Amino acid sequence: MPVEMRMWRIDGDDPKPLTAAALPTESELHEFLKKDPSLLGTALLVIGSEVITPFGKRLDLLAVDVDGNLHVLELKRDRTPREVVAQVLDYGSWISTLSRDDVIDIAEKYLGQPFEAAFAEVFGGTPPDELNGELRLTVVASALDASSERIVTYLRNFGVPINAVFFTYVEDDDRRYLARSWLTTSDEGSSNSVAKSTSKRATWNGRDWYVSFGGERSWEDARKYGFVSAGGGKFYSQTIRALPEGARIWVNIPQTGYVGVGTVLGPAQRFEDARVVTNGMDVHLASQPLEGGYTHQGAATDDDAEWVVPIHWIRTVPRADAYWTKGLFANQNSACKLRQEFTLERLAEHFDVHSDNE
Fold first, then answer.
1. What's the pLDDT tens digit per position in 293-340?
2. Looking at the structure, do residues 328 and 212 belong to the same domain, yes or no?
3. Cβ neighbours, 10 Å, residue 26
4. Residue 202 lies in a domain
5. Whole-angstrom Cα distance, residue 42 to residue 313?
6. Strand 134-141 and strand 248-253: pairing?
């Protein structure tokens, strides 16, 4: 039987049925979901609208969740159940082949800003190393008919990660409400309801971190006084502050290459308070003759401040001798876990760091 949404208001002992309104249309649902995809019941970041596919069709909405899984949202509009289901399956077959770089390229064209920054705004953290590991397909409608229900239920029984959701307006005097109903709950057939990617990411070794060191900062300052730093906004400051004591960091200068490897000596401190060890002496960093312009040291908030992490350098090279080869990991985050085996192997070889004790 087709899913039906009904609502009642309880006045005393008498339930009063609420009247279904004529809206929304699927085009309005499209706009609602673009503005607030949490209407689907989970936090999502929309990374594409009317996404042009290689076969000339336009995917209604593409979104990503906090785990980096992609969600294909296809509106039923006035198409038949067979047409809309075939379309969303076709889109899913293409989306499942997208690499991390493909996903980020689609996202940044739509968002108009770095994907990592938009992800942090919605989820409060950095994107996972693997994107598009799993896929979910959703048919969105203003009403769900019996045929759509049968097709979606049948496909889910065979492990296809598809579901259907419909929205209904209901009226209560001068108020209107948007009611949502899923065809099946997320835990029904959970072992078969998600499409797994054939690619696997490397397990993090629990020690190695990537650090991006750029802007107006001086790498020679960092080498001489033993530190890395970042700041000027929450996106940049929150990750550098996450570096744990004892972590091994590999430092990359954006658009230049890797210049050093070292060990974190202690927690991050605001620039104006930071102390570092140089020539065996504990000194106040801000009082040293620095070459770099650390323009955020007077920021009013911790998010906007410049944060300094003290480092014991294992190996460093001048900026002019930075190491880079195609395929090395690079990221806009100030710091993140480095789990890419290709990068770790080549950096260890280049900097002659092979022992876990280094």
1. 876 655 788 888 999 999 999 999 999 999 998 778 888 889 999 987
2. yes
3. 18
4. no
5. 43
6. unpaired
For the entire predicted model, the pTM comes to: 0.57
Residues 6+ apart with CB under 8 A from 54: 94
Six-digit token string for 67: 């785990």
- Regarding whether 176 and 225 lie in a shared domain, the answer is no
- The model's pLDDT over 11-26, given as tens digits with 9 standing for 90+, comes to 777 787 776 665 556 6
Note the pLDDT of residue 198.
42
Closest CA to 148 of 2, 31, 5, 283: 2
How many Å is the Cα radius of gyration of the chain? 26
Residue-by-residue DSSP string for 249-310: EEEEETTTEEEEEEEE-S--EEGGG-EEEETTEEEEGGGS---S--TTTT-SSTTTSEEEEE
Q: Which two tokens stand for residue 329?
A: 């990991």
Domain holding 51: CATH number?
3.40.1350.10
